[in-house]
Amino acid sequence: MSGRAALRAGLGLLAGGQVVLGLWILLLPELFWKWPWVSHLPPYNEHLLQDFGGASLALAVVLCAAVATMERRLVLTALVAYLVSSVAHLLFHARHLEPLSAASAAGFLALLGAAVLLPAVLVWLAADGTAFREPGPAGTGRRPD
Q1: Which of 6, 14, 32, 141 reaches 20 to 30 Å from 21, CA-CA?
Q2: pLDDT per residue as tens digits for the range 51-107
Q3: For 134, phi and psi rounded to 5 degrees?
Q4: Which helix (H) or strand (E) holds 16?
Q5: In this structure, which long-range contacts are made by residues 120-124, counting pairs with CB atoms below 8 Å and at least 24 apart in sequence?
Q6: Are 63 and 78 in contact (CB under 8 A)?
Q7: Global confidence as pTM
Q8: CA dist., res. 114 & res. 35, Å (int)
């Protein structure tokens, strides 16, 4: 798999996750709240959940635009925005694990850690620009996707 294809696939995975998360929260906030890793931080606040769902979908729009255009600045901007959000999310939950079992806390932190690691790797892949300059057929300057 080329660097460009790997970058596009990673961006697509992040975008898809944000679409699913955003729609789940906007359409079924009470069901999202019942998720054990969320409900241990009461009280339920529909307004906050709706805002979070909307923000997740907004981030998905930027990630989808990056997937569609594969323009270096947009890709890096989308990835750094995702990374800022996922680091903040990880740090918050790392400080609020008390009600969770050790196994649940470990699984949750592993999931949140992966949400930091993937965009960090993708930033590294995109940073030097190689994935955007791959040689292609007939002097097009890039490989077909």
Answers
A1: 6
A2: 999 999 999 999 999 999 999 999 999 999 999 999 999 999 999 998 889 999 999
A3: -65, 140
A4: helix 3-27
A5: 120/83, 121/10, 122/7, 122/10, 122/11, 122/14, 122/79, 123/76, 123/79, 123/80, 123/83
A6: yes
A7: 0.86
A8: 19
